[in-house]
Amino acid sequence: VDNKYALIVAGGKGIRMGTDIPKQFIEVGGKPVLMHTIIQFLNYNSEINIVLVLPQEHIDIWKKLCAKHSFNTKHKIVAGGNERFFSVKNGLHYIDDKNSLVAIHDGVRPMVSKLLIENSFNSVKKNIGIIPTIPISDSIRYVETNENSKHIDRTKYRAIQTPQTFIVDEIKQAYNKDYDLSFTDDAGVFEANGGKINLIDGNVENIKITTPNDVIYFDLFLKNKKLI
Amino acid sequence: VDNKYALIVAGGKGIRMGTDIPKQFIEVGGKPVLMHTIIQFLNYNSEINIVLVLPQEHIDIWKKLCAKHSFNTKHKIVAGGNERFFSVKNGLHYIDDKNSLVAIHDGVRPMVSKLLIENSFNSVKKNIGIIPTIPISDSIRYVETNENSKHIDRTKYRAIQTPQTFIVDEIKQAYNKDYDLSFTDDAGVFEANGGKINLIDGNVENIKITTPNDVIYFDLFLKNKKLI
User: Fold this and answer.
1) Shortest CA distance to A152 belongs to which of A141, A136, A143?
2) How many CB pairs under 8 A join A and B?
3) Which is deepest, A117, A151, A186, B160, by most CB within 10 Å?
């Protein structure tokens, strides 16, 4: 069996939260959001290798939080870049285990299911990366301008989550190419380098925690998982 | 000034809620969701004419709820059809005031803002219907199959809400055409009859209440609107 890595990217500055605490550090159910996220990967497999990418200026905060919460699980901490692309690239630099698999995951998605992590790793194949998607619940329109838009069939579109999972060597090669503004996720970088993407089902609770309501949602989730 | 109508469609059977109570009848903050929705239109304009479309088998339940909550505001109750198309069509049948305006709204969207209702009515023009949209927050892909999907630019797409607002005569003409399975909202019916649609900004809280978590979200909204 190949080694497995979780590359967890927590670059957010918390601007959208309307608070000084970056959202990955907000404590919910007694622990920072980011710690919940890491623990969920360990719940999936206690042997998984964790690489955590944080903005340089957050590394001390994180270390203090780990001390406060007696979070002693070994994990590699890497300083991020100005864009998500460079943060992921910096994290991949510390993974030399070329034939292993890496799941690249948003630090603020603590509700990722163990089943989704398992399916992600199990579905990766040579030159095929795996990303989770869920149906879009709203009706949507394609919009040129407010006066020029058209109805589209929403069943043809799906919303993307993380983790996005790849063979380490392949995704590292993709991240060695130049940065392009059109890259919005790892799948895009992988495809730009000739890789193929297969979709699997995400889990609907696996939202990005970006607003105060998302924090409440997560708190309720921890208190009563049947709610969701 | 033309008369204004709110045609509120509450056809849901509540199947997705995992409960026997249709979601429009669930009490939040002391009142059924549907009553909150109607009251919000009255908050916008106490003179607005309310036409409420309910499944035949829910009409007695609704009347009992109105008695229980001493909800005495005059409103026309109309029995719905098997599809939303026929429910709206049945409701429009009871609006004879041809040059007036009608806002067609989901009964389970109680968090519609007064500003959105106002902007909707004020933006309608001859042969132009108005629908509210909000940005799509997730990355999305166009999906043929799990093995054949592609990244798209989500800034070109927007999620649709209600109310969808029209000149009564024009939307009635559109609803006189035959039903087509491709109709997913009033805008689609209107466009199929040659009408044009302009978009305005919706309000993000104006979600459809379809899950237990949505109910919690609405409860928190009522308790502390600053949350959202």
Assistant:
1) A141
2) 108
3) A186
Torsion of CA A122, A127, A131, A135, to 10 degrees: -110
Tokens of A86: 């460079």
- CB < 8 Å to B104, chain A: none
pLDDT in tens, A21-36: 788 999 999 999 999 9
CB contact under 8 A, A133 and B141: yes
Asked if the Cβ–Cβ distance from B147 to A198 is below 8 Å, we say yes
Question: Which of A43, A48, A54 minimizes the C-alpha distance to A165?
Answer: A48
Nearest by CB to residue A140, choosing from B144, B157, B213, is B157
Please judge whether B141 and A157 are an interchain contact, meaning their C-beta atoms are less than 8 angstroms apart.
yes
**B204 — contact with chain A (CB < 8 Å)?**
no
The amino acid present at A113, given as its one-letter code, is S
- The complex's ipTM? 0.87
Q: Comparing C-alpha atoms, which of A193, A61, A179, A33 is closest to residue A127? A: A193
Tokens 């630090």 belong to residue: A107
Alpha carbons B59 and B61: distance in angstroms, whole number: 5
A143 contact residues in B (CB cutoff 8 A)? 133, 156-158, 199
> What does pTM read for this prediction?
0.82
B28-51 CB burial, b ≥16 within 10 A, e <16? beebbbbbbbbebbeebeeebbbb
Yes or no: say if A49 and A2 are a contact pair by the CB < 8 Å rule.
Answer: no
In chain B, the residue whose alpha carbon lies closest to the alpha carbon of A217 is B213
User: Is there a contact between A117 and A103 (Cβ–Cβ < 8 Å)?
Assistant: yes
pLDDT tens digits along B10-44 = 976 644 444 567 889 999 999 999 999 999 999 99
Per-residue burial over B10-21, b = 16 or more CB atoms within 10 Å of its CB, e = otherwise: bbbebeebeeee
Touching check for B144 and chain A: CB below 8 Å?
yes
- Please answer whether residues B88 and B177 qualify as being in contact, where contact means their C-beta atoms are separated by less than 8 angstroms: no
Helix (H, G, I), strand (E, B) or coil at B153: coil
Q: What residue in B sits closest to A228 (Cα-Cα)?
A: B213
Q: CB-based contact (8 Å) between B133 and chain A?
A: yes
